[in-house]
User: Fold this.
Amino acid sequence: MRLRIWRCLPILASLAIAPAVFAQQASGTITGTVTESGTSRPVANAQVFLPRTRQGGQTNDVGVFTIRNVAPGAVTVRVQMIGFEPVEKTVTVATGAVANVPVTLTRTAVALSEVVVTATGETRKREIGNSVATIDTAQVARQAASNPQEILAGSTPGVTVLANSGQPGAGGTIRLRGVNSVSQGNGPLIYVDGVRIYSGNTPNSGQGRQFVNPLNDIAAEDIDHIEVVEGPSATTLYGTEASGGVLQIFTKRGTEGQHWSASATAGFNNMGHVGPTSDPTGQGVNECRGPNLVNGAGVHYVDTTCPANGSWLHNGPVQRLDLSVRGGASSVNYFVSGTGNSEEGVLPVGGNRDQTLRANISFLATSALHLDVNSSIAHRRVTFVPDGNNAAGALLNLARGPGSGFRGTGCSSDPAVVCLVNDSLFLISSTNTTDHFTTGGTLTYQPTSKLSARVGLGYDNNNADIADIRPLGYILTPLGSYGETLWNQQLLSADASAQIRQPVGSRWVSTTSIGGQSFDSRLHSTSLSASNFAAPGTPVLTTGSTRTINSVSQQRVINAGLFGQEVIGWRDVAFLNLGLRVDGNSAFGKSFGLQRYPKASLSYVLSDESFWPIKSIESLKLRAALGESGKAPGAFDAVRTWNPVAANNGQPAFATGSIGNPDLGPERTRETELGFDASALNGRLGVSYTYYSAHTVGALIPIQQTPSLGFSGSQLENVGQLFNHGNTLQLTGYPIRGKNLELMTRLNVSTFASRAGDIGGQPITISTVQRTSVVEGLPVPSYYGKKILNPNAFADPDTVNDQFLGAVFPTKIISPNVSVRFWNRLTLDALGEWQLGGHNLNAIGYVDSNLQDWQPCYATQAKLKAFAAGNTAALNDVTALERAKCTLSSTARDLSFWVEDASFFKLRSVSLTFDLPRRLSLGSNNASLTFAGRNLFKQTSYDGTDPEVADQTDNTFSRRDYYVFPTYRTFLLTLRLGY
Amino acid sequence: MTLIAKSQMSLSRAAVPAVLLVVSAFCAACDLSVSNPGPVQDSQLNTPAALPPLVNGMSGDLAVALGTYLTREAIATDELTEAGNFTPDNFYAAGQIRPEDDITDWANLQSARWSAENGLARMKAVRGPAFETDTITPWAYLWAGFANRLLGENMCTAVIDGGPPESDSVYFIRAESLFTRAFTLGKTLKTTTVQNAALGGRASVRAWLGDWTGAAADAALVPTNFVFNAVFSTNTTRENNPLVSNTVSSRQVSVFGTVYAKSKADPRTPWDTVKTSAGGVQVGQNGSTPFFVQKKYTSLGSSVPLTKGTEMLLIRAEAALRTGDVAGAMSLINQERASSGLAALTATTASAAQTILQAERGAVLWLEGRRLWDLRRWQAAGTSTFLTGRATCLPVSSVEQGSNPNFHTP
Assistant:
């Protein structure tokens, strides 16, 4: 028996046919313009709708909305926009007439009437006992963010985004509220317009050693807003898998009339100095010609293939085009958009091209029934530079100077000079071509304001074709090789829920929700390779005479769950929320039953009480929440398996797989959060603060198996305890709100403190070469290894093993954002981010210093040699840390010495936007020109290439900068037009 | 209008039941069990058809264990010189073998032993009396025997199936019994290869247990040209010979600096210099050690001998030498040399003959994972000093120590 999601189809179909029986009524029209108070500027993309019937849409670029086919009579119009206090107006509509409703919205730091989407449906923020951050993507355009990952960086407290690599198209690591799991990942679940999409990544490129994140297939220009739901106390009803939080992405909707928007961006990527500033060659990347090409041992090298300008770097062009149309008439609204991006990296190869197409259509069948169908297709092709821990890697070879594996001949008459041909590095073709299709339909039925019901189906399909080709004649494999991974991930999800809102007496309101969700996830991945090409030309797998099927993986996981929730409201001031989720999952062990996750929360809008004394603080909501969520183990973790292999000269055979554990269940994270949201000084100042504390029990910990019992490796067991707490604070200020000068400021502060409790009695090694472990009492995970006790003493290093060297992930993130608008036309916006307390393993320094090619070690190594030659005073001014890092002994060196503080500040974006006057607007209704720069400035004491990067083919619960290409800066000029 | 109102009302009433229906459809129709293809469940191996692949797996596990270990064994002894950057390898080369550096070797070798011994128990249970006459049965005994010998020759301590630490001779005792069973069944089935391989394996472990008479008797029954291999193949990556990747594809280890680099004349220890395209001497991955490539294994599918007739001649020679029969020993050594077309050597004293024997074993068993044991036992006997101040064997890995409760003091 299988999960029969398709059994729902007849029900859905019958519900979909139902609208056909309804006919149109006699009606009128509502229209109006939404403007901002203070500046009188039109507000684009504001949501305008009739709460009773859900008719409506969004304002166009000049703030105008129209709602047709409105039943005659008194009608309430609601206008809402993130960052503004929502407004409701009552208007009388007459048959055949147009009612004009001008609306003025007031900016506010904290809007308690704002509506957010939870697992049970739409809810006002005031009713929620958790913090839910909403990212207003009007900001996004100014920051020239090209994808959700860039939008999230520095956007809201509690979010950590690490870029991983400076390769265009490479995906980053995203975390909400730090780490709650050792083995099951800490990424959030992702919903797009209510459809759950695959929240993982594609496999890594073989040569680029980085992945593509399907989240980034959602075009930034299509996004209306993002809700960030952090922590298990808020995500309980999303069930197993949700302990890493939930990202809800909402794309733009249609509106009355027809409005076109277009934007065109041109710019370039540019790389600054690579690696330690004292190295004039910048790891052999910035400079590949001239007298500086000599290593610490005095070996000179010459690269005759170095480009004419003496550098491997160039400015990589960037182009983006977006075109969208939104419109609607009578009962259908649509938003259709297409985007195209093309971006080149800063090395001779490498880049990203993607195209997206989206169609969001809303059908208003009757005043009570509407259907939303949202579909998108994205195609992407990322070309990677060979990178990271890879003998063919660009940085690995360039940074090793004369130690490059790409050696040539005849560059010098001096036989001691090493000749290099590093341009061969760029002959490898390493691509990840992805296709991402998402579609979903949600049928909402709201016959009265008291009752609503929803049924949804979603389908998300990700394909990746990851190909690495070494051509015939390539130095390292002269006969050529081809590796290809064909990967497909499908996620089919279904959900249904109903909500009944019922007054109980005059002071109480009860809102009861019930529902269920299920998903069916299928992974199919095949990895193939071939080598020894018969002939030159563009190869395919069969061009190689030696052909291998490396691996085939087919995995299916199904999960189904039910939830119930009761919200009791008291005088619209206090709300008690009680909920329960029950889940079953195919990956749970056989002896493991259903899982129950309870939650409770309380919110109290203290400022609405008549006794509230501080009138300058116009709103204050106190909130408290307690809830649980979990993470399921992997598809094969519960069963003992053997892998079919070939052995004994190609004959069929078995080899031990996983040892299995029939008692395996999900890990369970229980979180408590307390906080408040306040708005003061007439919306000019907003404060949102949350303290959270999470405790994971039954944490899935990979326990090393006893090798003499046959199954080596590790087996997950529900044995661990993890603790994770922190604070998030958002301060928002609109101190100046004049026509000629507006100032908006925002400061996000987050702290993250994790600690391993009892984890089965012994430290868990996450990665030996990454010196990363989970150790009781230390942050999860930690760099752990050999510590120098006297780093600054002028003495030999005094070391001790098995010591804490630093937290892997940042422990504090501070991101300020300032936006100033002059004369209602010119906007200057800047977003910075400090990520503090994290560490990275500078494995470049470790290896290069051993090869005597790490510039910061040259002086020390000269002194070490002098000392060895008998100069007893040579080391008098060399510290123990310098001696340990720069040692010339192959057995005295240790990666632990290269764990470095990776705290950094980056100026994520700076932009200047000029709203063009009418005469310059090329006939459009509105036009603007934005000049933006991203990652223009970086400050860090980290000595590797970049504190944010890590080789993703290494263990990703740790970070190792092993010749990973650093992030670059980008300059962009964007023209936006609206018709 | 009335129709619409009625429809809305009925729909309104229907909404809650409809949702309940959908929700119950999710759960009533859902059996959350999924059968994923690919990995094979343990119980599915309990059929006669699964047993031949199980025995092939034993061969595969042994090859993986030996192949992975070969490079490190060679740099821990006098067979090859380290020319790479990997820290654990540099420690092996420096004669320091730490429990955190032999995690993979310990696990692979133990896995090879366990899969063969556990497989034998499974075969017995599945086949009942037919187990004794199955043609695959003696092969399983052979793989189990060689896995135990490999462990005994290289590990400082024996640990069996999560048990307590025991003397390393436990592996040899198990191996002797397993080889005896292989030989007996091979004889019944009239399989010469199995009999010779079992005799060769048993001869070696009998010698290591001190039974040189029994060893010489077994050795004398194995033909000089007999070779029994751990099986490597170009078929899949797992079947490849890793020493070839480490010397042909990359330059992790070099013949440079070893006793074998002094001459290219010995066909048993073939190697060559490698020139860069500029005509200079190629260097290893560490950028400094001149790279001389071993030529004993030239293909990723080159197999590695586990026992062979020439080793048998040397076991007999060593047994003779232990009784003071220098002439008898030299005669056997020269038989072995003649089989490779090499000129006879002469020695008149026991110590000169011992020196020749040690060099001959080095050449005959070069890069076969046997040298550390030879150097270790000769070190103990006082006839070799190479391992002075160096590790003589591999310690119980840190993972075994951490995960086996017998290693924790209560």
Observations:
- Chain B has a mean pLDDT of 91.
- The first strand of chain B starts at residue 40 and ends at 41.
